Amino acid sequence: MTYDYFKKINNTYNSESRQETDLYLLNRHVNRYFDKNIDYHKVLKNGEPFELLIIKDTDSNTYKKKIKSRPYCKFNLGDYIEWDSQMWIVALVDSDDKTYNSGYMYLCSLLLVWQNTKGEIVKRWAYAEDYTKYSTGVSGNYNIKTGDYQYGLTLPVDEETKYLKRDRRFAIDLEGLSPPDVYVLTNRKIFLSDNRYFGRGGLINITLSYDSFNAVTDRFISINEGESFWICDYFDPNNNTQPTPPRLDSITAEIADTSAFIFIGRAKTLKAIFKDESGNILSDITPEWEIISSFQEDIKAEYLDNVLLLTINNEKYIGEKITVNLRYDGLPCDSFTMEVTDI
Description:
Elements: H1 3-10, H2 18-33, E1 40-45, E2 48-56, E3 64-69, E4 80-83, E5 86-93, E6 101-107, E7 110-115, E8 121-130, E9 150-156, E10 169-171, E11 182-189, E12 203-211, E13 219-224, E14 227-231, E15 252-256, E16 261-263, E17 268-275, E18 281-282, E19 288-292, E20 300-304, E21 307-311, E22 321-328, E23 331-341
Parallel strand pairs: 16-23
Antiparallel strand pairs: 1-2, 1-4, 2-3, 3-6, 4-5, 5-6, 7-8, 8-9, 9-12, 10-11, 11-12, 13-14, 15-17, 17-18, 17-21, 19-22, 20-21, 22-23
């Protein structure tokens, strides 16, 4: 059978190869019988009707479901899936989408509520984990801080969540309790699951640690009829007295370290220190680190708040140099060069 005849009988005149024709036929078959599958469900994706195959995970984890959608009907990281009266968040997307679009969604169990800088009340569902058993402090020349009553939350990256910074406080407790338990944002990771550069969404992972209730600034606010929430550090949007953030040109930054060497097998600690024009240390700024070397793949880098930990274990790099650049909001602030040594 010639290829031209094969295209004719399958009505695939626009395909340019046998593989492309086979893929077209497979997708046509998948699309035709998609809603006949026993795992087929109608759901809402970000509030809009959508179709999914929702498949029980092999490890019997009821908080995680494998999902598939029709060819050419994509879902992205951070999409909210409303199914069976529950809210789920897409936490994994397979970029290989030649047939099904596939991935995983996790069950959300926490509604996070806060007030943005405009005074608007923002709500986002989150997948929650118990981080109490993990250490979240720094090591090296600094003491390790053991986690105490901590949540790990997974949220979509959007125009509200991307501005969540350290020291932001949230009320998290059962409905009707007063005063509520309060937690403060102590860590954030934004690039562990980031597909935004090829248009498939992103996730932000934040750590919340137990904090204290403030009877002056933490308020119980009614948003709509029958809907009320505790809001930490609430302010009247009609009388916004929020402090003005420091200007970029008024901030200075430096990398705090006293040694120009990094030792084989030992973590090198670099700490970013930001100050305002009066010399006061700013604690709510997230540093941007850039590591430059000829052996980037063999450098272990850990990012903990404003601290960068670097480790090298291969002795063949003794005598080589590593440069670390510190940036804030894309602007260069400081640079540090060190030499690898075993002494």
